[in-house]
Amino acid sequence: MSSWKERYGEWALVTGASVGIGEEFCLQLAEKGMNIISVARREELLKELGEELTTKFDVQTREVAVDLIKDDAAERIEEAVSDLKVGLLINNAGFGQLGTFHKNSAQRDDEMIRLNCLTPVALTHKFLPKMVERERGGVIFLASTSAYQATPYFSVYGATKVFNLHLGEAIWAEYRKKGIDIMALSPGYTNTEFQKSAGVTEVRSGVLWTTPDKVVATALKNFGKKPSVIHGALNWLLAFSARLGPRKLNIVVAGNVVRSNR
Ligand SMILES: NC(=O)c1ccc[n+]([C@@H]2O[C@H](COP(=O)([O-])OP(=O)(O)OC[C@H]3O[C@@H](n4cnc5c(N)ncnc54)[C@H](OP(=O)(O)O)[C@@H]3O)[C@@H](O)[C@H]2O)c1
């Protein structure tokens, strides 16, 4: 079996790498021998992670501190890594906003759509063409279990995640015979900073909750095999039953689940 470096190339670029699921992608990809380009706003955290990756896994790293909401973010990243061959792109950075639609901040919704949807499209446009030329590479999009039915109280966030699910699955089909692996990853409730930044006041634990290491292990295990993957058997069952059940009931149940976990 070929190594990840042979399969995809030397460098993986991970957005939202300073904490949470993105940080875990960096750790597990570095463990597989890939060099890591980490992108987020908090430079200190990226530098600390870079040192950890070099010491633990003897890989090279590059830190790119950038606000991905800014219009020129994709250009700045492209410039910062113009001397490197990006073989894997992990479009991970994202945030949510909990609440009833009209009470939520319109500006934050706007920024969320930029970060969660426009930025992955812009970055994929930057790096996918070179992967196609090299006939190898891969891209992962962060969707969510909230992409499998409408999600009351996380309405705009849920819609951004449908965008990523459909985008990832659609371009999986376009590139599957061109040596490029594409996948949409759907975690369920995962303990990270996500809940705090989304305005979730009471973070619960329970059968639906998991940790970033498990989510990323699921992603890497299934990458190259499927257009999309849902982390966790129970999450998979809920998503599957959402396809079978009446749409109205699914939406009401999803809203109740969000309310009981906020
Ligand atoms: N946690 C969950 O329950 C869950 C469930 C399903 C899907 N997801 C998805 O998984 C992905 C990662 O989420 P997470 O749980 O790891 O969240 P997290 O712990 O809040 O991490 C978010 C990451 O995105 C970065 N980020 C946020 N705004 C940014 C900006 N404007 N510019 C650059 N970087 C920015 C943050 O870094 P800085 O603050 O340093 O910039 C951080 O590294 C997201 O797409 C999320 O939608 C999460």
Fill in the CATH topology.
Rossmann fold
Q: State the fourth-level CATH superfamily.
A: NAD(P)-binding Rossmann-like Domain
- In CATH, the architecture is 3-Layer(aba) Sandwich
Taken from the alpha-carbon principal axes, the silhouette is: globular
Radius of gyration, in Å, reads 18 Å
Helix-strand sequence? HEHEHEHEHEHEHHEHH
Q: How many domains would you count in the coordinates?
A: 1
Q: What percentage of residues falls in helices of 4 or more residues?
A: 40-55%
- Unreliable spans are none
Extended strand count: 7
CATH C-level class is Alpha Beta
Walk me through the structure.
By secondary structure, the protein is of the alpha/beta class. It has a single domain, classed as Rossmann fold (3-Layer(aba) Sandwich), CATH 3.40.50.720. Helices cover 50% and strands 15% of the residues. It contains ten helices and seven strands. It has helices spanning 4-8, 20-31, 43-57, 73-80, 106-134, 155-175, 194-198, 212-222, 233-244, 247-260, and strands at residues 11-15, 35-40, 61-65, 86-91, 137-142, 180-186, 228-230. It has a seven-stranded parallel beta sheet, sandwiched between helices. α3 links the parallel β2 (35-40) and β3. α2 (20-31) crosses α8, α4 packs parallel to α5 and α5 runs parallel beside α6. The chain is globular and about 50 Å long. 42% of the residues are buried. The protein binds NADP nicotinamide-adenine-dinucleotide phosphate (NAP). NADP nicotinamide-adenine-dinucleotide phosphate binds at residues 16-22, 40-42, 45, 67-69, 92-95, 115, 142, 144, 187, 189-190, 192-194, 197.
